[in-house]
């Protein structure tokens, strides 16, 4: 089996650096050496990373670099060069700078170059037979490259010197014609597609001009073909549509088109075109679209009539165009056909439908309606009566694009889209795809789209311009964050086209004008669109624009992190990404797996197909040389159940299926995906691409990558932008942006005076204390909004439940939302006890608590009529679901609650009486966070403890022959005591060091201690449901979940997911333990830590390393309290081994080593890492607890529930 290769390849793939500079002594350069066309600029045709904005000034090239951008880290691909006969080279390069280039040597012989061969010429030759793309003889995966110092040369043409990363071989790239305007900058990545030769001084070189070769700028930015095709009308629109995405703008025409698309694709897949099948498919798809029909207020009958009218020609289409060979009447519309030329077509095979293809080589992606094999017969009539008809037959793969609208509208965009799909299919199928079919269902003939060189060039140039602006914004944000001077970026969009008719009809008009006003700060009173501009933005004030600029930039900053991880799918090899915990490499499909049919149908899922994979049981020779170690356990890493994934087959088949992880064990992963995975078919395709060679000796190896979904941020940006639209909600704009004070009335008093409403209100509020009743009063009196600040255990859930019941009694509808599913479901669980009204729970079934699944649409049964659906959706007065959330960074940690409460402190109602924690547990957060404001709601709550039903289990443990514990000092006995209500278990003497799993952290000793204590509690009669385990680290969650896999009742949660939950006993694993005292950022996040500390009712056990944790000032205060109360239990050496009968290391319970730990003498949990520089700790004042300001306290408390 040959060595594995990267997912991106062409015939020759070489690591290169690209240099550009104008710091040359031009007086020493002979003018005869630069007798070139004035606008020539260097270009290459291979995978290259470059960005340089250049113009010609005074007969020489001068760099005009974009303003203050930091270059992103470059990743390159390297491989051995192919033969000189290859037709499709690919070289990845990086723009750099140097002062040590021998320019004399480089310029030697330049005067002998035949520049006439570089003249611009239109070349529209059409290739009519499929040309197979040759595979490289060898390639390696992407690796980071450190820029070398080089200097470029220039004259009347643009020239860039590049250097091969590994061999330091220098190459030259020349950019000419339209490519001379490419905006490139030192440090950028480009991909060069074309042939290299030695025409310039013997140095390998390439020219990119209107005649030949392509340059792909920032190929790691994958632009969708649909988005790019819009640039034909407006270069600004693709970026606008990428920034802001709404899912609520369903229009009838869009829905009819979507339904018909599904019907045609089904007919193609099944090769069924009889009228009954078509009608049945229409009915089935409409049944699955009832929610959309409800949104647009259309009936099933109206939808059926509309779609059938649009599908009336499908049967006739199949008769003419479906078959092995073209039929006489199967003509196609050929855009550039000669007068005497006619083409016939037959669709002989359907390769795939809804095929999504990512092409890092071209920086493109797209979802093809259908991938087909077509037979096209071109007939050229004779020019005279005695001549013969010339026939030429083509057969090969091509895209089949289906459009349900009128050809007169968006015709240019649809043709461009089809052209781009030919590039994507070339990348996926390994053949030169030069034609595509565009079919309008309302026309009689499909259109044969044959892209010319000029058309492909124009689209790639437009794509390069789009990604230039995208990268420019990203680098601007990165640089400002690095220098700790974060400001909104102001220039990242092309100019407005200023065409009133085109702009007024654009779907992105509101967003475009908003960015022009708020972000770009354009003043316009004279342009052709100034009236439209004023209409859409005249209502906005400068402070409102400033608000939008700030929050839009913060969302963009969050977006950069997601994109950075996503592009690793095509810039990293499987093993390298696996070392970072974001990929499973060398996975083999378990073909014996039979998926279990789900009990409930979830319409939100894309799990059309389910598969199970295991690790290959041996490593190939090449893999051992990669420098990366594969993890022993699939639990090691960032990937968890519910995560989005992409499935690939290296080296060529990138993201052939997408879906989610549905099951995960140390040895197996189960996934649900949107496409069928046939190992034999995939093996055949890889064999085709490699010239008939079998890339896999026995079975196909897959890689499964974590896929970062960023569409939520585009929707979040839409929610932000919608506040500022001219047709938006002016009241919300005033309240949230202008911070107008909320208005209150006297409805609560009026209800108490009402003989009809007062009894129910008094009954519901009877169990509430005075502060909870005040909160209810404030909410019922609110005309805008009310702010209720509840500290942990103070009964926020109780108040919310009472409010929902009261509002429903008053005939109101309620939408219940939170950032986490657990917080929403916890309230629904309490409502479920006695609520006598309907509830609709929306969201992914995998994330919803099993006991509230009964409130989902899936559990209600599939609606077959609009009336049934309307009853299910519109009747329940309470709808519950989660809202979008982001990581807390660079300002995004400021919640809406905090924003409003800081401005309107007088309108906040505090809840201070807590009913969850006993007084010992409450003392921790009350002292550290709340400055003594928390009060136990009753004496019973204050004295609560965990009584052990039986000690027989622990007695039996000590009687075991292999037990090594001195019972007098047994750590388990100590923790079982009812008086041990809050205990820190110090592991320093054990010891129990944390270990790395890629870039994640886990602690196996702590996990073992948690396991043994949990097993002891259960053995002594405590129910599993009374126990909760909390940790801040996802890798520790997976480790603990595996150890406690048989204890289904024990909840194992992150701090975020534990919000709204409480247990009689909470065990916290702190994880961080190392001799250098590094605790990381998570442990410094006291909002999360405070949530963890306040989940326990009767017993709180915290396991960790005191030496490591106390270095932080906040945690140091925590240990001060624990010492004062004598709540610290120091474990003895090897405490986790003194009870062998409790050990998790039993048969059928493997205990895996962590990645990167190769110590032959010590177990990984007892192996300290090399000391490093001690991290700085935060500086906080001792006055009044950890929080001095009321505003920060409010936000912290609100996030801690």
TrEMBL record:
Keyword Iron belongs to the record: yes
InterPro entries to which the protein is assigned, alphabetical: Coronavir_polyprotein_1ab, DNA2/NAM7-like_C, DNA2/NAM7_AAA_11, DNA_replication_fac_Dna2_N, P-loop_NTPase, PDDEXK-like_dom_sf, SF1_C_Upf1
Pfam families: AAA_11, AAA_12, Dna2
EC class (word): hydrolase
Catalysed reaction equations from the record: ATP + H2O = ADP + phosphate + H(+)
Cofactor needs: [4Fe-4S] cluster
Record's GO cellular component terms: cytoplasm; nucleus
A single BP term in Gene Ontology: DNA replication
The organism's place on the tree of life at top rank: Eukaryota
Domain (DNA replication factor Dna2 N-terminal): residue spans on this chain: 166-373
Chief location category: nucleus
EC numbers on record: 3.6.4.12
Compartments where located: Nucleus
Alphabetically ordered keywords of this record: 4Fe-4S, ATP-binding, DNA damage, DNA repair, DNA replication, DNA-binding, Endonuclease, Helicase, Hydrolase, Iron, Iron-sulfur, Metal-binding, Multifunctional enzyme, Nuclease, Nucleotide-binding, Nucleus
Domain DNA2/NAM7 helicase-like C-terminal, chain residue ranges per copy: 892-1106
Compositionally biased spans, kind Polar residues: 78-90
GO terms for MF: 4 iron, 4 sulfur cluster binding; 5'-3' DNA helicase activity; ATP binding; DNA binding; endonuclease activity; hydrolase activity; metal ion binding
Record SUPFAM superfamilies: P-loop containing nucleoside triphosphate hydrolases
PANTHER family xrefs: DNA-BINDING PROTEIN SMUBP-2, DNA2/NAM7 HELICASE FAMILY MEMBER
Similarity section: Belongs to the DNA2/NAM7 helicase family.
Entry protein name: DNA replication ATP-dependent helicase/nuclease DNA2
């Amino acid at each position: 089996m040959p060595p594995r290769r990267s997912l991106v390849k062409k015939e020759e793939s070489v690591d290169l650096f690209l240099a550009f500079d104008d710091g040359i002594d031009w007086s020493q350069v002979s003018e005869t050496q630069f007798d070139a066309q004035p606008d020539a600029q260097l270009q290459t045709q291979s995978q290259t990373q470059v960005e340089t904005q250049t113009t010609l000034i005074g007969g020489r090239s001068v760099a005009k670099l974009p303003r203050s951008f930091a270059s992103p880290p470059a990743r390159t691909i390297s491989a051995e060069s192919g033969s000189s006969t290859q037709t499709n080279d690919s070289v990845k390069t990086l723009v750099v700078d140097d002062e040590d280039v021998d320019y004399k040597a480089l310029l030697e012989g330049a005067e002998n170059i035949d520049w006439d061969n570089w003249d611009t010429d239109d070349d529209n030759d059409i290739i009519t037979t499929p040309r197979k793309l040759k595979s490289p003889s060898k390639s390696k995966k992407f690796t980071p490259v450190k820029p070398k110092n080089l200097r470029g040369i220039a004259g009347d043409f643009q020239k860039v010197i590049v250097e091969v990363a590994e061999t330091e071989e220098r190459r030259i790239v020349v950019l000419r014609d339209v490519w001379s305007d490419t905006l490139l900058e030192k440090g950028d990545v480009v991909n060069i597609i074309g042939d290299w030769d030695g025409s310039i001084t013997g140095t390998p070189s390439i020219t990119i001009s209107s005649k030949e070769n392509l340059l792909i700028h920032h190929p790691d930015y994958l632009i969708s073909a649909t988005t790019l095709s819009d640039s034909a009308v407006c270069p600004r629109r693709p970026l606008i549509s990428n920034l802001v995405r709404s899912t609520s703008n369903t229009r009838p025409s869009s829905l009819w088109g979507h339904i018909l698309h599904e019907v045609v694709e089904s007919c193609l897949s099944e090769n069924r075109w009889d009228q009954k099948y078509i009608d049945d498919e229409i009915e089935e798809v409409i049944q699955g679209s009832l929610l959309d029909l409800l949104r647009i207020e259309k009936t099933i009958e109206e939808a059926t009539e509309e779609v059938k009218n649009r599908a009336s020609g499908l049967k006739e289409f199949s008769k003419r165009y479906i078959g092995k060979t073209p039929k006489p009447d199967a003509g196609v519309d050929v855009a550039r056909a000669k007068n005497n030329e006619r083409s016939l077509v037959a669709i002989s095979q359907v390769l795939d439908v809804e095929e999504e293809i990512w092409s890092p080589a071209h920086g493109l992606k797209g979802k093809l309606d259908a991938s087909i094999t077509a037979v096209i017969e071109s007939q050229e009539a004779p020019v005279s009566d005695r001549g013969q008809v010339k026939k030429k037959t083509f057969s090969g793969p091509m895209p089949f694009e289906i459009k349900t609208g009128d050809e007169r509208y968006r015709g240019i965009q649809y043709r461009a889209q089809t052209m781009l799909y030919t590039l994507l299919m070339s990348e996926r199928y390994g053949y030169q795809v030069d034609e595509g079919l565009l079919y309008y269902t309302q026309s009689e003939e499909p259109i044969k789209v044959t892209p010319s060189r000029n058309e492909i060039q124009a689209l790639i140039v437009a794509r390069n311009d789009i990604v230039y602006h995208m990268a420019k914004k990203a680098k601007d944000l990165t640089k400002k964050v690095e220098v700790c001077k974060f400001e909104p970026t102001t220039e990242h969009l092309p100019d407005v086209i200023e065409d009133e008719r085109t702009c007024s009809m654009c779907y992105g008009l509101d967003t475009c004008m908003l960015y022009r006003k708020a972000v770009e700060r354009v003043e316009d009173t004279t342009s052709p669109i100034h009236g439209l501009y004023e209409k859409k933005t005249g209502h906005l004030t400068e402070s409102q624009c400033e608000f939008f600029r700030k929050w839009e930039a913060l969302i963009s900053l969050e977006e950069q992190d997601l994109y950075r991880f996503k592009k690793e799918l095509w810039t990293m090899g499987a093993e390298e990404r696996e070392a970072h915990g974001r990929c499973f490499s060398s996975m083999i499909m378990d073909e014996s797996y039979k998926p279990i049919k789900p009990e409930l149908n979830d319409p939100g899922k894309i799990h059309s197909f389910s598969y199970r994979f295991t690790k290959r049981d041996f490593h190939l020779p090449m893999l051992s040389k990669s420098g990366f170690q594969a993890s022993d356990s699939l639990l090691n890493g960032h990937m968890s159940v519910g995560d989005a994934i992409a499935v690939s087959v290296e080296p060529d088949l990138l993201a052939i299926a997408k879906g989610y992880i549905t099951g995960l064990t140390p040895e197996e992963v189960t996934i649900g995906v949107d496409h069928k995975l046939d190992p034999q078919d995939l093996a055949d395709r890889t064999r085709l691409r490699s010239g008939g060679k079998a890339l896999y000796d026995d079975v196909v190896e897959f890689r499964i990558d974590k896929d970062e979904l960023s569409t939520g941020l585009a929707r979040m940006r839409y929610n932000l932008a919608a506040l500022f639209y001219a047709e938006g909600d002016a009241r919300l704009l005033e309240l949230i942006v202008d911070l107008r004070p909320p208005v209150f009335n006297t409805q609560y008093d009026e209800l108490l005076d009402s003989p009809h409403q007062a009894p129910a209100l008094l009954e519901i509020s009877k169990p509430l204390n005075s502060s909870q009743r005040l909160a209810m009063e404030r909410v019922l009196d609110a005309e805008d909004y009310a702010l209720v600040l509840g500290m942990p255990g103070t009964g926020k859930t109780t108040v919310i439940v009472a409010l929902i019941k009261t509002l429903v009694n008053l005939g109101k509808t309620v939408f219940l939302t939170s950032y986490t599913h657990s917080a929403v479901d916890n309230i629904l669980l309490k409502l479920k006890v006695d609520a006598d009204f309907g509830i609709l729970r929306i969201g992914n079934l995998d994330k919803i608590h099993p006991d509230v699944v009964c409130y989902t649409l899936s559990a209600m049964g599939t609606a077959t009529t609009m009336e049934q659906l309307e009853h299910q959706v519109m009747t329940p007065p309470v709808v519950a679901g989660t809202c979008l959330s982001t990581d807390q960074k660079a300002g995004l940690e400021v919640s809406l609650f905090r924003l409003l409460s800081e401005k309107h402190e007088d309108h906040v109602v505090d809840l201070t009486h807590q009913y969850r924690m006993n007084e010992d547990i409450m003392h921790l957060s009350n002292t550290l966070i709340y400055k003594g404001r928390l009060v136990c709601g009753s004496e019973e709550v204050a004295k609560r403890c965990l009584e052990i039903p039986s000690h027989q289990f622990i007695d039996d443990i000590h009687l075991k022959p292999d037990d090594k514990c001195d019972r007098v000092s047994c750590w388990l006995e100590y923790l079982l005591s009812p008086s041990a209500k809050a205990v820190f278990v110090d592991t320093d003497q054990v010891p129990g060091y944390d270990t790395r799993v890629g870039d994640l952290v886990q602690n196996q000793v702590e996990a073992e201690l948690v396991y043994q204590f949990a097993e002891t509690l259960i053995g002594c009669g405590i129910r599993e449901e009374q126990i909760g385990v909390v940790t801040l680290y996802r890798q520790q969650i997976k480790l603990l979940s595996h150890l406690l896999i048989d204890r289904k009742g024990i909840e194992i949660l992150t701090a975020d997911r534990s919000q709204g939950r409480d247990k009689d006993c909470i065990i916290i694993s702190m994880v961080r333990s190392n001799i250098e005292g590094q605790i990381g950022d998570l442990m410094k996040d006291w909002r999360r830590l405070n949530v963890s500390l306040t989940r326990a009712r009767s017993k709180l056990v915290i396991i960790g390393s005191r030496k490591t944790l106390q270095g932080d000032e906040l945690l140091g205060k925590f240990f001060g309290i624990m010492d004062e109360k004598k709540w610290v239990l120091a474990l003895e050496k090897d405490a986790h081994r003194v009870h062998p009968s409790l050990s998790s290391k039993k048969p059928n319970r493997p205990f895996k080593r962590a990645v990167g730990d190769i110590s032959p003498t010590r177990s990984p949990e007892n192996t300290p890492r090399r000391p490093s520089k001690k991290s700085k700790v935060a500086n906080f004042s001792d006055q009044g607890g950890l929080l001095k300001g009321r505003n920060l306290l409010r936000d912290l408390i609100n996030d801690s529930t």
